[in-house]
Design a protein that fits this description.
five-stranded antiparallel sheet; 3 domains; SH3-like_bac-type; membrane; transmembrane; alpha+beta; SH3 type barrels; SH3b domain-containing protein; single chain; elongated
Length: 153
């Protein structure tokens, strides 16, 4: 054992250094803006420059202006269309073990709660093109994909 003590220390030192290099490389990869832009990074990091954020704010303002114009146009079309577009509310149950309820109808929005298998939810169909519906319980209101819900039998 005493003969090989130096060899053991050398091997452990090499393994430790290799681990440190690996961790440093992985941190660099996860902080790389190109990695985040590829869509494979599940945790979005704030890597935009101030110019990008200024243009994003301008785009958001323009989208808000366009949305308000569209809303005014839809209000001017008459009350008859409003009667036809009443939301459909029904009760459905969750058909997966654990379902994330999100704050907006988008997979990148913040999760607000989790619901479990066979939990009953009040569902409002919002006619979202990707199949999102608005769910409500006594505790919260959020959005889930309709494919994870079944009609109450």
């Amino acid at each position: 054992m005493k003969k090989h003590k130096g060899l053991y220390i050398f091997i452990l030192t090499i393994i430790t250094l290799a681990f440190i290099v690996f961790v440093a490389f992985m941190q660099r990869s996860f902080m790389n803006p190109e990695f985040s832009a590829s869509g494979t990074d599940p945790v979005l990091t704030n890597t935009t420059s101030s110019k990008d954020s200024e243009s994003t704010e301008e785009d958001a303002k323009q989208n808000t202006d366009e949305a308000s114009v569209k809303e005014e146009e839809s209000q001017n079309t008459g009350a008859e269309e409003d009667e036809d577009e009443t939301p459909t509310i029904s009760t459905k149950v969750v058909n997966v073990d654990l379902l994330t309820v999100r704050s907006e109808p988008d997979v990148e929005s913040d999760p607000i709660k989790f619901v479990t298998m066979n939990q009953a939810l009040e569902v409002e169909d919002i006619n979202h093109p990707d199949g999102w519906v608005k769910v409500t319980t006594d505790e919260f209101t959020g959005y889930v994909k309709d494919k994870f819900l079944d009609d109450v039998e």
